[in-house]
């Protein structure tokens, strides 16, 4: 069947009357990979694209063969460049808004891999190839040493200068409030309207359920969520999402 199709396509390509007039042959050539074998890492790039576009969901660990690829991505320029595209778009959008200035416009930030980076932890644990270990991860969290994501810091400062208030909405548990506060303060996030952590009443609920319930509460209390940024699709789904959502890259883990 595939052979037949190839033969059919080849016939179109070499058929001068149709092909050249419509430019068809040219287009078909362009869709045929030109440069021989795929280069190493291409399949991991496709995997990452699938993750970021939410075509690949529900995964628990990074494919083993992609550890090197994800590690280089996270530690190299591309992760930072990709993050910059997201936050620059957010800044352009925020600057374009005509706000009421009544203090009710808020922007929701997720924390992990959005505001704070756990890259120092993941660099020592296989960049998501190793299964998530809550004991080890919490040992890292309570050190309160997670650095700020520089691009998100720039967005945060811009929003404050525009009179937009910030709400942190995190999957970290309520018991970690002090640690989270200390870590945020320590790296330069000094002010916020609310810091919402996951209460024990949400045990057994998905992140989508928890986060959208909390966003609904915000709106009920008169806030207008004009923007929402996170590294997980579960930060950005459910009702309400906020007027615009911004997805930061994260090929290391998936939260539903
Ligand atoms: C998590 O890591 C600790 C410390 O290395 C280990 O004792 C424990 O068995 C791990 N838990 C799981 C579920 O793998
Ligand atoms: C947010 O969306 C609502 C509903 O579509 C709209 O009425 C409002 O003007 C938007 N807010 C901003 C600041 O664009």
Automatic annotation (TrEMBL):
Pfam families the record matches: Acid_phosphat_B
Signal peptide interval: 1-19
Coiled coil residues, start to end: none
Keywords: Glycoprotein, Signal, Storage protein
InterPro entries per the UniProt record, alphabetical: Acid_phosphat_B-like, Acid_phosphatase_pln, APS1/VSP, HAD-like_sf, HAD_sf
GO MF annotation: an example: acid phosphatase activity
Domain of life: Eukaryota
Role: May function as somatic storage protein during early seedling development.
Family as reported in the entry's similarity comment: Belongs to the APS1/VSP family.
Protein name, UniProt field: Acid phosphatase
Gene source species: Lithocarpus litseifolius
Species classification: Eukaryota, Viridiplantae, Streptophyta, Embryophyta, Tracheophyta
